[in-house]
Design brief:
mainly alpha, DNA polymerase, domain 1
Length: about 70
């Protein structure tokens, strides 16, 4: 079974702050209402669009989603 998007993105925490993926992961970690169990693109993108911040951006989400979908 594929892990949730949330768990996948957590693997980027602690990296170089200049990386948008790292900033997204850190912001997502502190967002208590983030849909942590979801692997559904529509649910996640709707959440990001509704609660976007300087670091929790749809651009970073789209890039991370491509990486998430490409994992084995």
């Amino acid at each position: 079974m594929k892990k949730s998007f949330y768990l996948y993105v957590l693997t980027f925490r602690g990296g170089d702050w200049s990386d948008a993926k790292v900033r997204f992961a850190e912001e997502m970690f502190h967002e208590h209402n983030f849909p942590k169990q979801s692997a559904d693109f529509n649910e996640l993108s709707n959440y990001i669009e509704s609660y976007a911040t300087e670091n929790l951006t749809i651009e970073a989400f789209d890039h991370l989603w491509e990486l998430y979908e490409g994992q084995a």
